[in-house]
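Feature request, filed as a ticket because there's no other form

It would be nice if the structure record came with a short human-readable summary line next to the tokens. Right now we just get the raw output. Example of a typical job, pasted below so the devs can see what we mean:
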Amino acid sequence: MKSIRILVSGPFGAGKTTFISTLCSGEVFISTDRAITSPIEKKYKDMTTVAFDIGIMHYNDMKLMFFGTPGQQRLFYFIPILMRQCEYLLFLVDSSSLASVYRARVLYDRFFRDNDFHNFLILANKSDIRKISNKDIAEILIVDVNKVVDCVALSKSSCLHVIGLLLNKIFK
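Raw output as currently delivered:
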């Protein structure tokens, strides 16, 4: 059975933990979520990833292993450690928040612009309540618009569709 390691990254609140937990429910999912202590961040959600999330699922004859990065800047030191473990990238942005997309640009430029992830997708998460188009996301992140795909991290079928797209890019 072929094992594939996929890094799931993006800014704070983009939906990384939700994406992995949705895909891996019923198989293996381990989260390092802890209560948020920052009053500003607590306005957006109650819990946040403080190290990394890991999820494992089986897809056809492959074992997919997902490693989710933390989204808070003070925990970014962990991203390069996880990058060395993974071959592919799914980079989530919150398509309902322009500010989040711009935060994504800073993170993408810092860690992923000049890397070895030839097969990657930008996931326009929360596309069910979208405010920013995939074209605008691509322009802000300076990537090919064909790399930006819709996603709803709460929907298993949406997440599986993304996995199918990524694997199609890998194995074509």
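Something like this underneath would help us a lot:
Helices lie at 16-24, 39-42, 79-83, 98-111, 134-141, 156-171.
Strands lie at 2-9, 28-30, 33-35, 47-49, 53-59, 62-68, 88-94, 120-125, 148-150.
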